[in-house]
Write a structure and sequence with these properties.
Layout: H1 3-25, H2 36-55, E1 58-59, E2 65-66, H3 69-79, H4 82-99, H5 104-124, H6 133-150, H7 157-211, E3 216-221, E4 224-228, H8 230-236, H9 240-244, H10 257-269, E5 277-283, E6 289-301, E7 304-313, H11 315-363, H12 370-401, E8 410-413, H13 414-426, H14 429-433, E9 437-442, E10 451-454, H15 456-473, E11 477-487, E12 491-500, H16 532-542, E13 546-552, E14 556-567, E15 589-593, H17 597-606, E16 613-617, H18 620-629, E17 634-638, H19 646-655, E18 661-666, H20 673-679, E19 684-687, H21 692-704
C-alpha cells in the first residue's frame, strides 16, 4: 500500500476524531436539552467536517478516490438525529454541486445513503439501548457501505468495474470497522456522561436528603468538621463556612468538652463500641445552651478515619424529664410531708383532747374537793385554748392562701403588744421547764409610750410564733427579745428581733423554713403543726414588712422583721376592769336554732340567768315550722344546719316578713362571713367557740337598739 494512502487515511481518522470532540463538548447528551439553534449549529459543523473530508480523499488509484464522509454521516444520523444530519447532508451535497465532477451523483448518493441509514438505525436500532452496541454499529457501517458499492451505477459504464474493484475491499472491510470504532467512541462518551449524570443526580438526591433531614448531620475528622448539613447550621445559628473553619469542640459546652472529645477519640480508634450514643450540651451563637443527643458511627472519609454523627435537639425532652423528676420528687416530698403533718396534727389535737376528756371525767367524781375542781377546770380551759389555737392556725393559713386575711387596725401602744407576748412567753410551761435558758429583753425606753395604728392581734400573733419557736428549739443558753425604732414624720419603722442559742437551722433546710407544714427536725417529733413561721411570714408581708433570719447550725438563730407603722392619734384610756352585767330578758322568748345538742345546752346555760324563755329548733325545717306558729323576740341562728341552712332560713324569714332580732352564730371563720350574715338580715354575729361575754354583749347591743 502506498504511503500516501496511509497518510490520507490518518488524516481522515484525525478529522473523524475531531468530530467526536464536537459530540463530546458541543452536543448536549440529554436529548431534552437540544434547541433548534443548537441542532442547526451542529448540522453546519458536521457539514463543514464533511467538506474537510471531501478535501482530503483517499486515492486508491489515479482514477478512484474515496473519503470518510459516509462514516461521518452514518454516525451523525445515529447520534445527532434528524435535523443536524439533514443539514450536514445538504451542506456536503451543496459543496459537491459547487465543485462538480464526474462522480457528482455518486457522491450525492453516498451522502444521502449514509445519512438516512444512520437516521433509520437511530429510529429502530438505537445504539444507547441495544445490548451489543458495537456489533450493532458495525452492522450499520457494513450495510451503509454495501449500499455505497451500489452507487457505482451512477458512473459511466466503462468505469464501473474498475471502480468496483478498487473500492469494494476498503468499503467492506475498513469502513464498517471505522464506523463501528467511531460509533463505539461516541457511545463510550455518552455512557461516561450518563454515568456522571447519574452520580451527580444521586449526589444531589443524597445532598437534598441530608440537607432536609430532621436531624443535624456532621462528619468530623482530625478534630474538624468536614461536613455539616443545613439543620446543623440552623441548630447552632452559625454559617456553614464558620462551622468548617473551627474545631468541632468549639461549639460544645465547656463542662462537656472532655467527655465528647474522649468518646470521639475512642470511636475513631474503635476501642469502645458504647461511645456511639450519648447526650451533651452545645452553645449556640446567641449563647443559648441546648441539650444534644448524638448517634455516631465510624467510617472512612477520603481514606482517613472519621465519624458520621446524627444529632437531635432534645432540650425540650430534657426539660420535660427534669420537670417529671421534680414533680415526682415533689409528690414524694408532699406524701412524706402529709404523713408528718398528719402525725403532728394527730398529736397536737389528741393531746389537748386527752386533757379535756380526762379532766372532764374526773370532774364527775362527786367527792372531788373544790380546789381540785377549780384546778381541773383551769386545765380544761387551757387545753381548749390550745386546741383553738391549732384550729386558728389552720384557718389563718387557709385565709393567707386565698388572700382573704384582713387586718383590723386600731390605735394601740406598742409596748402593750410587746408586754402581752412577753408575758405569754414567760408563762410558757416549756420555758419554765428549761432552767438553763435565760430570757432577755432589749427594748428601748421610747417604745413604752409609742402609739401606733396597727392590728395588735396580728403583730402579737407573729411575735408569739417567733418566741414559741425560740423556746421550742433552745435547751440552754438564752433567748433575747429586742427592737429598735426609726421615727419618721407620720410613721415609725419598728425593727424587732428574737435571737436564741438553740439548735440553729441546717443549710439544707433554709429554703423550706417558711413553707407550711415544714419543720427543721422533720425526722423527729417537735411540738407544733409546722404552720407558725409560714403564718408569721404571711402576716408580716400583709402588713408591708419584711421577715428574714440569720442562723448557724448548732449555735442558734436570729429572726427579725421590720414594719413601718402609722403613728396613732391620742389614745383614750379605757377602764378595762369594767364588768358586764347580765341583761334582764324577762318576758322575752328566744329560739336557739342549733343542730348540735352540746352547743345548744351550752348557749342555754349562758342564758340561764337572763330570765328569758328558751326554745330549741334542731334543724332549719323545724325552725320554720315553729316560726309559722309563733314569732319569738329573738333568734340565735346557726348558719350551718341540716335540711335548711341558716341563709335559706333568713331568706324565708324575710319573704314572710317575720319581725324579730336575729344573731347569727356559726363555726365558719372565713373572711367576710360576718358581713354576709349582716347583709342577709342578722343584727348580730358571734363565732364559735362562743365567748359568753361577747354573746351577752351582742344581745345587749341589739335590744338597746
Amino acid at each position: 500500500m502506498d504511503i500516501s494512502i496511509i497518510i490520507e487515511m490518518i488524516q481522515n481518522v484525525a478529522v473523524l476524531l475531531a468530530f467526536s470532540l464536537l459530540y463530546d463538548y458541543m452536543w448536549p447528551k440529554d436529548d431534552g436539552a437540544h434547541t433548534i439553534f443548537g441542532k442547526i449549529l451542529a448540522g453546519l459543523s458536521i457539514g463543514i467536517i464533511g467538506i474537510i473530508l471531501l478535501s482530503i480523499p483517499i486515492g486508491l488509484s489515479s482514477e478512484v478516490i474515496i473519503d470518510s464522509r459516509t462514516v461521518l454521516l452514518a454516525i451523525s444520523g445515529l447520534f445527532f438525529g434528524t435535523i443536524p444530519t439533514i443539514i450536514a447532508m445538504l451542506v456536503i451535497i451543496g459543496s459537491q454541486l459547487l465543485f462538480g465532477g464526474d462522480s457528482l451523483w455518486m457522491g450525492a448518493a453516498y451522502t444521502l445513503i449514509a445519512g438516512f441509514s444512520g437516521l433509520i438505525w437511530r429510529q429502530y436500532f438505537p445504539a444507547k439501548k441495544i445490548k451489543s452496541p458495537y456489533f450493532n454499529i458495525l452492522l450499520l457501517g457494513l450495510i451503509v457501505h454495501l449500499f455505497e458499492l451500489g452507487t457505482i451505477i451512477f458512473l459511466p459504464k466503462e468505469q464501473m468495474l474498475s471502480t468496483f474493484k478498487s473500492i469494494a475491499l476498503p468499503l467492506i472491510l475498513l469502513y464498517p470497522a471505522f464506523t463501528g470504532l467511531l460509533g463505539l467512541l461516541l457511545l463510550k462518551r455518552w455512557q461516561t456522561w450518563n454515568t456522571q449524570q447519574q452520580k451527580s443526580k444521586e449526589e444531589l438526591q443524597y445532598r437534598a436528603l441530608f440537607e432536609n433531614a430532621g436531624e443535624a448531620i456532621v462528619v468530623a475528622q482530625k478534630g474538624m468538621i468536614t461536613f455539616a448539613n443545613k439543620r446543623m447550621t440552623d441548630l447552632l445559628g452559625v454559617p456553614y463556612e464558620e462551622i468548617r473553619s473551627k474545631p468541632f469542640t468549639s461549639f460544645i459546652h465547656p463542662d462537656d468538652k472532655s467527655l465528647v472529645l474522649s468518646k470521639h477519640q475512642n470511636r475513631i480508634k474503635q476501642t469502645d463500641h458504647n461511645q456511639n450514643h450519648y447526650s451533651f450540651r452545645v452553645i449556640t451563637s446567641n449563647n443559648k445552651t441546648l441539650w444534644i443527643e448524638i448517634n455516631s458511627v465510624y467510617f472512612l472519609w477520603n481514606g482517613e478515619p472519621a465519624s458520621l454523627s446524627f444529632l437531635s435537639d432534645v432540650t425540650e425532652q430534657r426539660q420535660t424529664e427534669r420537670q417529671l423528676v421534680l414533680a415526682k420528687n415533689k409528690a414524694e416530698e408532699s406524701d412524706q410531708l402529709k404523713s408528718i403533718f398528719l402525725a403532728n396534727m394527730s398529736h397536737e389535737i389528741r393531746t389537748p383532747m386527752n386533757a379535756i376528756l380526762g379532766f372532764s371525767e374526773l370532774l364527775s367524781i362527786s367527792t372531788l374537793p373544790d380546789n381540785k375542781k377549780t384546778h381541773y377546770i383551769e386545765m380544761i380551759q387551757t387545753a381548749g385554748k390550745q386546741l383553738l389555737h391549732i384550729i386558728n392556725d389552720i384557718v389563718d393559713i387557709s385565709k393567707l392562701e386565698v388572700n382573704q386575711l384582713r387586718l383590723n387596725k386600731q390605735d394601740v401602744k406598742l409596748y402593750d403588744i410587746y408586754s402581752q407576748s412577753i408575758e405569754i412567753c414567760k408563762n410558757n410551761p416549756l420555758l419554765k421547764e428549761k432552767k438553763n435558758v435565760e430570757f432577755k429583753l432589749n427594748l428601748p425606753t421610747t417604745c413604752r409610750e409609742l402609739k401606733v395604728h396597727a392590728d395588735p392581734y396580728r403583730i402579737r400573733q407573729a411575735l408569739d410564733n417567733l418566741l414559741s419557736n425560740a423556746v421550742k428549739y433552745t435547751d440552754q443558753g438564752s433567748i433575747e427579745f429586742g427592737c429598735t425604732l426609726e421615727k419618721k414624720k407620720d410613721t415609725v419603722v419598728i425593727n424587732t428581733y428574737i435571737q436564741d442559742t438553740g439548735i440553729g437551722i441546717p443549710e439544707s433546710k433554709k429554703d423550706i423554713i417558711f413553707k407550711r407544714f415544714r419543720q427543721v427536725e422533720e425526722n423527729q417529733y417537735r411540738e407544733g403543726a409546722g404552720l407558725g413561721l409560714s403564718i408569721t411570714k404571711g402576716i408580716i408581708d400583709l402588713m408591708g414588712g419584711t421577715l428574714d433570719f440569720e442562723t448557724t447550725e448548732g449555735l442558734g438563730s436570729k429572726f427579725y422583721f421590720s414594719l413601718e407603722l402609722e403613728k396613732a392619734k391620742e389614745i383614750k384610756t379605757v377602764n378595762k376592769s369594767k364588768t358586764l352585767s347580765l341583761p334582764d330578758l324577762k318576758g322575752m322568748s328566744i329560739y336557739i336554732a342549733e343542730d348540735d345538742l352540746t352547743s345548744f345546752f351550752l348557749i342555754k346555760e349562758y342564758l340561764s340567768e337572763t330570765n328569758a324563755t328558751i326554745s330549741h329548733a334542731s334543724d332549719g325545717e323545724i325552725l320554720m315550722k315553729m316560726l309559722r306558729k309563733q314569732v319569738p323576740d329573738m333568734l340565735l341562728l346557726d348558719i350551718n344546719m341540716p335540711k335548711k341552712d341558716g341563709y335559706t332560713c333568713l331568706k324565708e324569714i324575710k319573704e314572710n316578713n317575720y319581725k324579730m332580732k336575729i344573731i347569727a352564730q356559726t363555726a365558719y371563720a372565713m373572711e367576710n362571713e360576718k358581713d354576709r350574715c349582716l347583709r342577709s338580715g342578722c343584727q348580730g354575729y358571734v363565732s364559735k367557740p362562743i365567748d359568753p361575754e361577747i354573746l351577752l354583749e351582742e344581745i345587749r347591743k341589739i335590744i338597746s337598739n
